[in-house]
Specification:
Largest sheet of chain B: 8 strands, mixed
Radius of gyration of chain B: 18 Å
Order of helices and strands of chain B: EHHHEHHHEHEEEHEE
Oligomer: heterodimer
Strand order of the largest sheet of chain A: 7-4-8-9-1-10-17-16-11-12-14
CATH topology of chain A: Peroxisomal Thiolase, Chain A, domain 1
CATH superfamily of chain A: Thiolase/Chalcone synthase
CATH class of chain A: Alpha Beta
Largest sheet of chain A: 11 strands, mixed
Number of helices of chain A: 11
Shape of chain B: globular
CATH architecture of chain A: 3-Layer(aba) Sandwich
Chain lengths: 385, 242
């Protein structure tokens, strides 16, 4: 039987609608603040969806925006960890193709080309994850597995997405998945689990984590933000556009992550939910969590981040894992921004209005992709916590 | 031990439409790379012990989407430049074509597969990451069977040539279909090398299958042509054929 190495997080980077650092992301969530807003270039384009999670740190007129958003998060994570890319594997998702404004018009770059450009400074393995909205979480899980099994000592894992353009907004509007602008306060566009939810707010963003063996982190004297202790994936095998009503696929990936971590559901302190604010997605997720926690579901705090930062697609799972790691480190569960009146069928122990200090040490972070791919990771408070 | 037990290829979706109406009914609304990948997978899954429990590793096409989607992209980019997007509505089917893991999702629905899945994106050389993942999953005992599939086109045009490839692996030695020989996957090894890669999800795996077919019994050290790598590493696939 092979020896499993322990895997820890020693660096993180995050660019989101709440700011260009992990600190701004965390502080914004604790303040119950949404970074989603009306985006003037979308208003100017004349489409019906005009709100989104914009990343201000990199100009939207920069034709290299997809590279720069990703590299900023990667560099922040590597810098915090004090690790060199050339000594790390790279497990990353760049989502879908980008259509960016350049000096001579729009620049179309394939997601694969973007990945190859980002991967060039890393050692192997270099794996591009393509699991839709579950990509970021699966990237963390795959990196965890590679390190745990001894194939590599350290990896940068995460994802980046530059999709806040009419090309994708018109498409998602066709699927009735995004919140249409009806003149409301744009910061309220995305309302996970709420009676008034009407879909997600599309967002740009990037999240990166440096994962490495506990042994290597200790030898280097690195700060350990959290330990990754479990990973699970599953497929719904149900429908291309919506989850099964009872959330069976979502529940399965969570149970697999628990089994991998050798934990029982009652050992989970809190959940960082996928919480897209789509009608069927939230119902299925809530159903899955109630089944997972059985009689205990009323007392497991649940929080989602998309009300604050929108849905950053390939980056979503890792941005949420960054939040989960902060929860592990502090014990504090941030509120689900914009959740005010919980919808029938979405009942859980939602954290509403203000953060809750529950001394949480073990966090389940989940993502569910369009098409039915589901991924879950479990993080535990690190040695420095 | 990891054994290659079946392989299938599909380069002509017209043949599927004419000869396999049931399969065509399942795949007709997808774009060509996805249709080709699923047709190839259909060839091999009849050799699977249990299609519902096999690990599914699917390579996204390096030219994702369809010719329709690319035409739509041109409409949108023109509209963005001229500020005339207000009246555009997208056909949801076209949105579906943009999903990066569409073949994997469609396969799972057909085979009621809830097992481990890994979608690898449309970057050059990801096929070898897929092969490494097969080794990892089966060698660790997570699953007993694993499917690796890919579909791609040479260009995002309706008539552009395309290819779908599927390889089925098992922890149990079984005669490889179609040759009847035993093909054991020994290792996938890498060394640093900067080369010019040509992104294509399926061509590299097809070339590997061709090499296996031509090889006499014994150890085959298949050196992946530089064009089929990720551009950063030389890859050698070692197989034992008997």
């Amino acid at each position: 039987m092979s020896h499993k190495r322990r895997v820890v997080i020693t660096g993180m980077g995050a660019l989101s609608a709440l700011g260009a650092t992990t600190r701004e992301l965390w502080d914004g969530l604790l303040a119950n603040r949404s970074g989603v807003r009306r985006v003037q270039r979308l208003v100017d384009s004349g489409i019906t969806v005009t709100t989104g999670g914009e990343v201000d740190a990199i100009s939207t007129e920069n034709p290299e925006r997809d590279h720069e958003i990703a590299n900023r998060a990667i560099d922040d994570a590597l810098g915090e960890s004090k690790r060199d890319a050339a000594a790390c594997g790279f497990i990353w998702s760049t989502g879908l193709d980008t259509f960016q404004m350049g000096p001579d018009g729009f620049v179309h770059r394939s997601a694969g080309r973007c990945f190859s450009n980002l991967a060039s400074r890393f050692a192997g393995p270099r794996r591009m994850i393509a699991a839709a909205c579950a990509s970021g979480t699966q990237a963390i899980g795959e990196a965890f597995r590679l390190i745990q099994s001894g194939q590599v000592e350290a990896c940068v894992a995460g994802g980046s997405s530059v999709m806040l353009t009419p090309f994708y907004l018109i498409g998602f509007a066709g699927l009735q998945a995004v919140a249409i602008d009806n003149g409301d306060d744009p910061s309220l566009a995305c309302r996970p689990f709420d009676k008034k939810r009407k879909g997600f707010a599309l967002a740009d963003g990037a999240g990166a984590m440096v994962l490495e063996t506990l042994e290597s982190a200790q030898e280097r004297g690195a700060t350990v933000f959290a330990e990754v202790i479990g990973f699970g994936v599953s497929q719904d095998a149900f429908d291309l556009n919506r989850p099964c009503d009872d959330g069976a696929g979502a529940e399965l990936c969570m149970r697999r992550a628990l089994a991998d971590a050798e934990l029982m559901p009652e050992e989970i302190d809190t959940v960082n939910a996928h919480a897209t604010a789509t009608y069927s997605g939230d119902l299925a997720e809530a159903a899955a969590l109630r089944k997972l926690f059985a009689t205990r579901w009323r007392s497991v705090p649940v929080s989602g981040s998309k009300g604050a930062i929108g849905h950053a697609m390939a980056a979503a799972g890792v941005l949420e894992a960054v939040v989960a790691a902060q929860t592990c480190a502090t014990g504090i569960v941030p509120p689900t921004v914009n959740l005010r009146h919980v919808d029938v069928g979405c009942e859980l122990d939602h954290v509403i209005g203000e953060p809750r200090d529950v001394n949480a040490e073990t966090v389940l972070s989940v993502s569910f992709g369009m098409g039915g791919q589901n991924a879950a990771v479990i993080l535990k408070r690190g040695l420095n916590g | 031990m990891v054994y290659l037990i079946a392989a299938g290829q599909c380069g002509c979706i017209t043949r599927v439409r004419e000869q396999k109406p049931e399969l065509w009914r399942q795949v007709r609304r997808y774009n060509k790379p996805v249709q080709l990948a699923l047709a190839a997978a259909d060839e091999v899954m009849r050799f699977a012990n249990d299609p519902s429990t096999a690990a599914v590793i699917s390579l996204a096409p390096c030219r994702p989407g369809s010719a329709d989607l690319y035409r739509w992209g041109n409409v949108v980019t023109s509209g963005m430049a001229s500020g005339t997007l207000g009246n555009l509505r997208m056909n949801p089917t076209q949105t579906l074509h943009a999903v990066d893991n569409l073949a994997m999702s469609a396969f799972a629905i057909t085979h009621r597969n809830h097992a481990y899945c890994l979608g690898l994106g449309g970057a050059a050389g990801q096929a070898w990451c897929g092969l490494e993942a097969v080794c990892e999953r089966l060698s660790a005992g997570f699953e007993e069977e694993a499917l690796l599939m890919a579909g791609d086109q040479d260009a995002a045009e309706d008539e552009a040539p395309g290819l779908g490839v599927a390889l089925l692996f098992s922890t149990r030695a079984q005669p490889f279909q179609p040759s009847g020989r035993i093909v054991r996957l020994v290792s996938v090894s890498r060394s640093p090398a900067i080369v010019d890669a040509v992104p294509h999800a399926a061509n590299g795996l097809a070339a590997l299958l061709s090499s296996i077919a031509q090889h006499r019994n014994g150890l085959l050290s298949y050196v992946v042509p530089p064009a089929h790598t990720d551009g950063f590493s030389a890859v050698t696939v070692s197989l034992e054929i008997s």
